[in-house]
Write a structure and sequence with these properties.
Number of domains: 1
Helix content: 25-40%
CATH superfamily: P-loop containing nucleotide triphosphate hydrolases
Distance between the termini: 56 Å
Largest sheet: 6 strands, mixed
Radius of gyration: 19 Å
Strand order of the largest sheet: 6-7-8-3-9-10
């Protein structure tokens, strides 16, 4: 069978040194939303490699495509073109059910809004996704993760009975409980005060270090980006530049 030019290019990209072993490898990813005259080109020829165990910060002005890039990486949005490889698997070949199963096993997601189920306790919010994924001892595992984020005594409380910081701790425990190799966080401190946000970030990075997984983090906090291995800046849907940790730490405040 004769391969298309795009297929050949994608194979060349993913076979380059390091790309085949990447936790996340995006090659020439494009995404547009809307129709006709209202169609907007959100992501433009994105090439991004994130190594296993790396913590990468994604920054840029509002509307630059950061959250959309996370959605594509998690398989919650489908790219119009290009290759999206996550944990060595091409997401473009999966149907929605397969994508959902893949996310349950491989990707933990923490959003700015907590997305907790209001009629479930903290323990149930963490345990139910584990049960649906067929993980044994879901309740015990959920209790352990809630204890790890400092909520052992609040596990039987409902979201309305928890502060914003406590709700985000539940969301973080839910994301980490399946022990996913990849954790994605979209402005996880955006709805929190400075002190509470700092506590959440400490927990986030502690969980990342303990599991030695891969972290993809969207943030506007310069102090937070200094804790990442690398920072990628988006501008108008394109990667504008990349900065390694050494340069971040040597930059003036």
């Amino acid at each position: 069978m004769i391969e298309s030019e795009d297929q050949r290019r994608n194979m060349q990209d993913t076979s380059r040194s390091g790309w085949a072993d990447a936790a996340i490898a995006l090659s020439r990813v494009n995404l547009s939303l809307g129709r006709g005259a209202a169609r907007v080109h959100i992501l433009k020829d994105i090439d991004l490699h994130i190594g296993r165990g790396e913590a990468l910060g994604l920054v840029g002005p509002s509307g630059s495509g950061k959250s959309t890039l996370l959605m594509v990486t998690a398989g919650l949005e489908r790219a119009d073109g290009g290759s999206v490889m996550v944990a060595g698997v091409p997401l473009g070949s999966m149907d929605e059910d397969a994508l959902a199963r893949f996310r349950a096993r491989n990707i933990g997601i923490v959003f700015q809004s907590f997305h907790l189920i209001p009629t479930m306790t903290a323990l149930e919010n963490v345990a139910v996704p584990l049960e649906l994924a067929g993980i044994k001892d879901a309740e015990q595992l959920a209790a352990r993760e809630l204890a790890a984020v400092g909520l052992a005594e609040r596990r039987n409380h409902y979201p309305a009975e928890l502060s914003g910081g406590e709700q985000q701790r539940v969301a973080l425990a839910r994301a980490l409980a399946p022990n996913p190799p990849i954790l994605i966080a979209d402005e996880p401190t955006g709805n929190l005060d400075e002190t509470t946000g700092a506590e959440i970030i400490d927990l986030l990075f502690a969980g990342h270090a303990r599991r030695r997984g891969t972290l993809l983090l969207v943030t506007h906090d310069a102090a937070l980006t200094a804790r990442c291995n690398r920072v990628v800046r988006l501008r108008s849907g394109r990667i504008a530049d990349e900065t390694p940790r050494a340069a971040l730490r040597s930059s003036p405040p």
